[in-house]
Amino acid sequence: MSKILTGVLCVFALLGSSLTWSNADEAREAVIKVVEAFRTDIVADKEILAKDPALLESRVNKILANVVDFDDFSKKVMGKYYRRASSEQRTRFANVTKDTLLKTYGRSLLELDADRINVLPLGPQGRGKETKVDVDFQMESGGMLNITFYMEQSKSGNWLLSNIVINNINFGLTFRKQFAIMMEQNRNDIESAISAWRASLAKES
């Protein structure tokens, strides 16, 4: 369960304005495509992928590359410290975050029940740019997760994951706070904080 909560991540921001219901439907369709890809490309081949971590990571990356901007995600996690980081540090932070989350997320997906993944009808929406899409995931162990995907339309028209809430835990905000704490614990030294971030993610994977 902890791996699911850590891995599903990917991602994350808090922005504002309003959406038409038509756009909201498009956001839900984008989530449905991702969920179906999980079902057919990951869960259905779980026996094969469980023995081939490289193939598993490759498939997860292919699915999430369409809806997650990992560089942007890492920028939001770093928050106010992003401007202080060098280009090399930003790239390394993004790569470490992406690689570790892909590994964790992939293994977590293998625990899902392929026949019991349900994208719920759209509910009331807020006034921001994000569209909220709820999905219920049944675990083979019997547990249930409710995951809220917050989708935002990019300038190019694609729908991207901007934040995720799992069982009422806001992971965009949580990750940002965690990195801020690491900065404080490492006397605001970005290099040391990135190393601490790598170690923290490695423990979860």
UniProtKB/TrEMBL annotation:
InterPro entries: MlaC/ttg2D (IPR008869), Tgt2/MlaC_sf (IPR042245). Residues 1-23 form the signal peptide. It comes from the Bacteria. The keyword Signal applies. Keywords: Signal. Pfam families: MlaC. This is Toluene tolerance protein. It comes from Marinomonas primoryensis.
